[in-house]
Design brief:
140 residues; Rossmann fold; globular
């Protein structure tokens, strides 16, 4: 099964600083998903990951590496479902970004869980039927 990897996981994996044990497990899981060719990328995540890199050389290096992952095709149906999810959550007092709800729509329409560190997705899950990916080594 393919897994939609959120910006929060990519950002953690790309940081240079020493990681906690839990963060290390997340990075290891991402590496496994990459090796297994199970990673799903979408344009908004690619944009978020690349944004804020002021060093042009580092930007180009990361851009080339991320090109290994094709973007899942986003259709009008994805955007309409994302808007519906946003409206549904807002009615229940849950705010979220347009990108978050687009990821939820991709998850539902494409049948792939979301691998994220963003706790907002736990709240969305209660109302929009997404599945969250849990690292295989999370309980160790």
């Amino acid at each position: 099964m393919k897994v939609l990897v959120d910006t929060s996981v990519w950002s953690l994996a790309l940081r240079k600083r020493t990681k906690t044990e839990a963060e290390g497990r997340t990075v290891t899981e991402l590496a496994e998903l990459v090796r297994e060719l199970r990673v799903v990328m979408v344009g908004p995540i690619r944009q978020e990951v690349l944004s804020g890199i002021s060093d042009e050389g580092k930007f180009e290096t990361l851009r080339r590496k991320l090109r290994a992952f094709d973007d899942a095709e986003l259709t009008t149906g994805h955007y309409e479902l994302a808007a519906s999810f946003s409206n549904r959550c807002r009615k229940r007092g849950i705010q979220g970004s347009h990108t978050d709800f687009l990821l939820c729509a991709v998850s539902v329409k494409n049948g792939c869980p979301i691998f994220t560190l963003d706790k907002d997705f736990d709240r969305y899950r209660e109302h929009v039927g997404i599945t969250l990916y849990r690292a295989r080594n999370e309980g160790e």
